[in-house]
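Input (Metalloprotease):
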Amino acid sequence: MPIPSAKKNSSRTSRFAALASAGALALALGGCAATSTAPVTPGQAAVMTAQERQLGAEAHPQLLAEFGGAYTGPQAAYVEQVGKNIAVQSGLGDARTAFTVTLLNSPVNNAFAIPGGYIYTTRELVALMDNEAELAGVLGHEVGHVAARHAQQRQQAAQQNSILGAVGAILSGVLFGNSQIGQLGQQLAMQGSQLLTLKYSRSQEIQADDLGIAYLSNAGYDPRAMATVLQSLAAQNALDAQRMGSSNQVPEWASTHPDPASRVSRALTEAQGMPGNVTNKDTFLTRIDGMMYGDDPKQGVVEGNTFIHPVYRFKFSVPSGYFMVNGTQAVSISGQSGKGQLTAGSYNGDMNTYIQNAFNGLTNGQQQITPSSIQRTTVNGIPAAYGTARVDSGNGAVDVTVFAYEFSNSQAFHFVTITQAGNAGVFNSMYSSMQRIDATQAAAVKARKIDVVTVRSGDTLSSLASRMAYDNYKMERFLVLNSLDSNSSLQVGQKVKIVTY
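Output:
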């Protein structure tokens, strides 16, 4: 969470974000209207227009800001190389110059594309892959979206609505009825700003799968890699659901693509009989060795039920049974009894105005939510204030709370939470846990990284999993990271990934 001093959410940024391939919550909430797909022959896509290139060039820096920025270094150069090589198969001009391939500094599993040949994947998703063919498959899938002009079709289907308006409409109808807090529900249901984009229809996703598989085969890669990376995503989704509990399941593929488990068998069938057998497994593992994994300390880190931000020097803890996801603009908090987020806003020293502005921001200024009162307090030496408003959600009354902290005359942070009416107190322990940390504590926060190790004689699944830099789910994380199961056998000389500091 690299929290800005002021919230940025311009209609221009939203319009660009709406063109990205990563999606919102439509599938998890029942799907969206079908969108027809025109046939696209691999290698014969229509030339990108000047308008598409301009749109992508304008959107690119804004999307980087929304999705954690670009991850740089040798791993990023490798991803760019593979991405441009597979993009050649689309026929969309000279891929070496026509495409921009970016490795994002994001701890979520995601990949997306926008018009103009801009392709993105996160370092977290790359770390989940097992070989270069899988990397080429994911990037080829996104190239397929560009080649088929899916983003433009979805934008037209949304009638030029901004993504926030489109998702807000979905969530306000499903979660909260036609209420004034639809925007709040949309914000708190998101798992960070990676969801600020429209969802493709199922037919578009299938077409992108098929194009990606064809690109793999034509490039000499094993076309089954599309199915195996989807299988890894499905396994990661299952682990995330296990860690979060059934009431807090995260949407598939960071809520952006149809359920990968349902696409595995179809992708295998599509690849059957197609030429290509290159995977470049060892090359891939060697090239991603040392890549950051999980939260970037500069954006704050989630450690169990505690969030620590070494740059702004604070930490807080969520109640037992709650789960946090660190996004680029906010930390999302989800549990059975309520949802919330921590973020920041523009602060001029007036806490009452700050809190009211936070309430106003929940409805995009369309209707005002006003707390019954604003109370001043001190939390662990930090000046603070809070207010709660009871709102008719359309499905019953809910309590919306803003709890803000003044860290300086120009810097404030605040929680926004939503609970059933009368249940706002479930977050009291979280509000009271906010505290500053000193320089020593801040310096102790370290980044995790991917460490590719070679299996030696005597190594077992248990011994390798014990080296994972986590306090829980060590074995489960290790197995998913390496596409293994509890009955897998290790071979001496085999390369595997572990997560270390």
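The first strand starts at residue 100 and ends at 104.
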